[in-house]
Structures are given as structure tokens and as C-alpha cells.
Amino acid sequence: MKKTVKIILAAVLLAAAGAAFPFIRNFSDEALLRKPEDEIYAKVCRLDTDRLIRKINRIEKKYPDMTDKVALLPLYTALTERSSEFTADQLIAQIRREETQPGIEEAFVNMYAAEGYDSAGMLALLDDPETAEETKDYITAHCDLTPDELCGIFRGSDGRPAVIAIQRLAAEDSETAMQLVDEFVSGAQDNISDQKYIAICLGIAQYYEEHTGPEDIESMKNIYIPMMKTIFENGKSDPVRDQAVYALGRLCDYDLFAWLIENEHIDKYCKISVTERNYRQMKTWIAEAKSEDDIRAVLDAMRIMPTLEIGDALEDAIAKGSLPESDELRSLIETIRAEGVHAVDKYD
What we know:
Structural class: mainly alpha
Largest sheet: none
Oligomer: single chain
Mean pLDDT: 85
Strand content: under 5%
Number of strands: 0
Low-confidence stretches: 5-24
Number of helices: 21
Radius of gyration: 28 Å
Helix content: over 70%
Distance between the termini: 77 Å
Order of helices and strands: HHHHHHHHHHHHHHHHHHHHH
């Protein structure tokens, strides 16, 4: 009888331990992430590679938002330092595993690049519908890819990889980038998707903002503005036309700003976005103006979206004598005071 009781008790204890194991493991993960980074790193370096991969996947799944993933950096570091343990095929197999989480996928991509493996493996992942979108973005942004390969990604993708590819091309081989964009904008390509046009707009606008120095501004505008206007004029859907307007609005050029604000084919909400995007530049145009005609587009924009800070800039210019006072200006300033909102600075 005593032996039977002992067996039953042992079985109960084993079952309880099994039920408690996930809780203990989760508590262990939480306790680990609360430690300083150097302690986390030292602790996980003692794990074998398979256990380290399982731990990262488990924690990533538990903390899917990016803020919590910052705590995983010591684990990613410990893993990427072992890149030489993996062949190219093994890294690709890890990326393709269903349980592999997006963050560790990026670590495997880094490891693949660090070992100098052939880009063909990464390009195959870009073509695989099972590859996470975040991983495709990361591959396009960080892998060692030739201009021809980036062109291929742009032609073959309608999502973020196309945007990233055209940005990289513009930064690394601007001549090839412009030839590629012209191929689509000039009508040489048939049946271009809306997403492709949007990728062109986003890619060019972001590149212009991030990479164009003061000495290159005019030449870049001469290239980009006609392209964006062509997309706007030829766009067959509102999302494409709207994206072209948003891209043009980011170039901060007065003549272009006037074209956008005064264009009857552009709706009010797009003009509001253009006005917000050019908030700082409008203050500069007002400070430099000698007459109302010099800032006619700014005044028109204030009738669309009265902005208190622009009203202040107009009053300052009048007070300093750089801008002649008039009934029209006074009336507009009063309207701004009554109906205006505070500026939304899109550059913050």
C-alpha cells in the first residue's frame, strides 16, 4: 500500500513539475531581461547555439513590440558572433523555419552577410512569399547587393523593398536610379501598378530629403520635379496622384509650392499636407518677401489652412517694414487669428 501511495505521489509531483515548467521558464526569461546588458550577454554566451536560438525565439514571441526587443540586443550579439558555425544553407534554413521570429531573422541575415555568402540566397528569400516582410526590408537595406540586383528588386517588388531599393540606388548609383525611374515614368513600361508609382514617389522624396546637399539642390530638382509631375498627371488612381503630391510637397521649392497650392486638380486635404510640410520654408519666404506677390502662394495656403505661426510671421514682416501693410494682409491675419491652428512641424 505504501509503495502504491509513493508511486501515485511521484506521478502527481512529476505532473505538477511539468505544468510549472513553462511558468518557471517564463519567469527565468523575465528575470534575465531585467539584468544589465553585460550580465545578459555573459549569461547567454554560456548557452549552446541551439538553446540560444530557442530562447531568442521564445522571448521575441512573448514580447512582439519593438520596445521590448531592445532588451534582446545582447542575445542577438551573442548569436551573430557565432556566424562562422553556420553554412549559407543552414542560415537560410533558419530564416525559413516557421517558428523563427522577425528579429532573429534579421540576425541571421546579418550573419549571412558577415560571412560573405553569395547574394543569390538572399535574393531567393525576397522572392519567397513565406519570408516576413520585415526581413525582406532588412535584406534590401543591408545586404551587399549590386546596382543590377537592386534594379531587379525594384522591378520585382511593389512593397517596401521597392522603396528601399530605389533609395539605395539613388545614394549609390544615381545615374542608374534615374534611368530606372525614367523607364517607368516615361511610359516605356506597360501596366505599372499603383504600388510601383508610390514606391517611386516615396523613394525619390526620401532620398532627396536625406542625401541632397545645398550644392546639389537645383540640379536634383530639375531631375525629380518633372518626374513627379508626370506621375501626378498620368496617375490613374487617387492614391498615386496623392502620393505624387506628397512627394512634391517635400521638395520645399517656392515655385513648386505655388504650383501645388494653385492646382485645381489637387484636393484640399493634399494641399493641407503640402502646407504642413512647408511650414518652416513659408516663414523663410515671408522673411525674404518684398511684396505680397512674392508670397502669393503662401497667402493662398493660409486661406486653405490658417496657421497661427504664419500669421505671426506676417505680422513680424509688416512690423519690420520688409512687407508693406495692406487691407488684404490685415484681413487675412485677422482670419488666421480667428480660425487658425498651431503649425504641425513635419520635420520634428
